[in-house]
Amino acid sequence: MGKNEKTPITVNDIEYNVEDMTETQKAYLNHVQDLDRKMGNAQFNLDQLSIGRQKFVELLAESLENPEEVEEAEVVN
Questions:
Q1: Residue 71 carries which DSSP code?
Q2: Which of 45, 53, 57, 66 has a CA between 20 and 30 Å from the CA of residue 74?
Q3: Backbone φ and ψ of 19, nearest 5°
Q4: Per-residue CA distances from 25 to 15, 16, 21, 29, 50 (Å)
Q5: Between the CA of residue 60 and those of 12, 34, 45, 51, 68, what are the distances in Å?
Q6: pLDDT tens digits, residue range 14-64?
Q7: Domain locations in the chain as residue ranges
């Protein structure tokens, strides 16, 4: 961006320029952006955990249905 260009953001359907904000408002914005990143990371981790859990449920169900096919070497702790 050039020196005269401003950075717009939208809050509650109203557009504001970051450069026109007070230092306190910029701090609030930084917190919001950081929390958005953390929430995205938490959702990514939750997705991985959910899929992993589902796979272990499938493995458990399979081993209960066919116990003779499951070997001790397959057990993961």
A1: -
A2: 45
A3: -65, -20
A4: 14, 11, 6, 6, 37
A5: 48, 39, 22, 14, 13
A6: 999 999 999 999 999 999 999 999 999 999 999 999 999 999 999 999 999
A7: 24-68
